[in-house]
Write a structure and sequence with these properties.
Layout lengths: L1 H4 L7 E6 L3 H10 E9 L20 H5 L4 E4 L2 H7 L2 H16 L9 E4 L3 H9 L7 E4 L10
Parallel strand pairs: 1-2, 2-3, 4-5
Length: about 150
């Protein structure tokens, strides 16, 4: 929690996004300033999880009540169904602009030709694997093939 809270200074972290959920999501929630908002858009902690006790985000009731923190979910598929067609059409350009202005950054993927599918899947399933596998189509060569 200290690594999350320190860079924000005295004002604290006002907004956070979480794609892991579970105990990690709880730690993110605890690091937030009073009145802050946590948006949960994924549950990577539940990947291949069969133990129902491991699925919840264990939140502190006092954080929600006395510190008036807010937790809300976001599911892109639902957003597509509820947002106006005009907003949906404008969204990719807005994201592109945010990346161009360096407000958002897109992590670089690790290119794999389709012929190395099994290796790419093994990398994706490895813990702390770094860059995500990215299938490339074309001459069949990946960046690290030489």
């Amino acid at each position: 929690m200290q690594r999350v809270a320190e860079p924000a200074g005295r004002a604290g972290v006002r907004k956070a996004v979480d794609c892991v959920a579970g105990p990690v999501g709880a730690q993110v929630s605890q690091a937030l300033a009073p009145g802050a908002e946590l948006m949960v858009y994924g549950a990577l902690s539940t990947y291949r999880q069969t133990n129902p006790a491991a699925l919840p985000i264990p939140l502190q009731a006092r954080s929600l009540i006395y510190e008036t923190k807010t937790v809300r979910g976001f599911w892109l598929n639902r957003w597509f169904g509820t947002a106006s067609p005009d907003i949906v059409r404008r969204a990719p350009a807005r994201v592109r602009d945010l990346v161009a202005d360096e407000v958002l950054s897109i992590p670089q993927g690790r290119p794999f030709p389709l012929a190395r599918f099994a290796e790419a899947v093994a990398l994706a399933e490895a813990p702390a694997h770094g860059a995500e596998p990215l299938f490339v189509f074309g001459d069949g060569r990946a960046e690290d093939d030489g």
